[in-house]
Structures are given as structure tokens and as C-alpha cells.
Amino acid sequence: MAWTPAAARQDEIDEVVRHRAERDELFLRHGLDRASSTKFIIDAAEPLEDHVLDIGTGKGLAAVEVARRGSTVATVDVSENDLRAAFLLASSAGVQDRLEFHHADARKLPFGDDSFRLVTMVNVVHHLDDAPAVLAEIARVLAPGGRLVMADFTDRGFEILDGIHREESHVHDRNSGATIDGLTEHFDRLGMRCGGRDRRFHEYVMVVIKT
To answer: For 54-76, how does the pLDDT look when each residue is reduced to its tens digit (9 = 90+)?
Structure first.
């Protein structure tokens, strides 16, 4: 369902900027450059479409990068807290008017068939309980000839991420353990094919084309 954020207060924006800088520094100390990896992933999505769907938006790093490059972004996440964080991050970058927020489960997207020509899904696959169902929904809303750009951590990236979470006394849950490569077995039945792969900054990126 559509989600309308309350107006951002300056103290909220300042806190998000501060927290983002601290987290980026923590990740960098462990060997993960979030700014460079996000740019690398969105570079793989170029040329961007005017209207992009971002699945599992989280705190908004990828969605904001897409918006910075001039596209409008329909965001989807199951967490209202994360949608709020993404809105505040977008507000700090001055691109909040380019984001549309949807509080929804990716297994039942609130969009019609063939609605998008570009979908992004960044560092989400390993969190999904039913990744094939999400992929099927993406195939439904993706127009023929459209692209899905999905990225997730490499094995080394996951090792680093686990170390960061241990340092913070957390456990990084990978849920079903789904992987991008594991989803390729569903491509044929969904009318999709791999259009390219790349690996940098401890991230693995695949471009998938709907035929």
C-alpha cells in the first residue's frame, strides 16, 4: 500500500546524516566501501529509466543514488521504519520528491503488469523467505525488454558483514540462504535471461532481461 511520510524535521535529517557517516566509516574500517559499492551497482543499471522500481529499499542507499541521477523511484519495503529512514536520507540529499513509498510485501507488488522497464533489488535476496515468489512478481511487473538489476554480497562480503554485526553484538540473518545464482533456475519459466554479471567492492551484480 502507498505510504506517505510525515514532513522531515531538521533534527531527524541531521541524525540520519550523522548515523550514515558513522556506519559508512565502520564498514570502511572492515573493508566494505558502501559509497563505492552503491555507485558500482547503480552504474550496472545504466541507462536508467525515468521511473524505476526498487525492491527492499531498506535505508534507501540504492534508491537515493538512482534519484540523484534524475529518475523517480517507486520504493517497496515491509518495514515502515526503513521507509522513514529512506525518506530522511532522500531529504538529506534533496531528492525526496523523486521517491514514492510503498509499504508492501514484494511477493504481492501493488503495481500492474508490465509497469516498469527497470527494477533494482540491492542486498535483498539473502533476506527473502521466498525468493522465487518475489522474482515471479518482478517478472510480472517488468515490461518485455525491461531489466532487473539485482546485487548481493560476495562470500567475502558476507564474512565482513558478519564480522561487523558480531562487533555490534548482532547476528546477521540470511533467512533462507537464497542467492542470486540460485534464482537463475527460475529464469526460463518466467521468460527471463541473464544479460550480464559483474563483481566488485565485495558485491555481485547480475543484470536480468525479461524476454
So the answer is: 999 999 999 999 999 999 999 99
Would you state the pLDDT for residue 144?
98
Instruction: Note the pLDDT tens digit of each residue in 139-163.
Output: 999 999 999 999 999 999 999 998 9
What is the residue-wise DSSP string for 53-94?
EEES-TTSHHHHHHHHTT-EEEEEES-HHHHHHHHHHHHHHT
> Which domains does the chain show, CATH number per domain?
10-105+125-210 (3.40.50.150)
Amino acid, res. 60:
G
The DSSP secondary-structure symbol of 110 reads S
* pTM tops 0.85, yes or no: yes
How far, CA to CA in Å, does 170 sit from each of 37, 49, 58, 166, 180? 23, 37, 17, 5, 24
Beta bridge partners of 208: 148, 194
Cell numbers given for 38: 552503491
- Give 86-90 contacts, CB < 8 A, sequence gap 24+: 86/57, 86/58, 86/59, 86/60, 87/5, 87/8, 87/60, 88/8, 88/12, 88/13, 88/16, 89/16, 89/20, 89/59, 89/60, 89/61, 89/64, 90/60, 90/63, 90/64
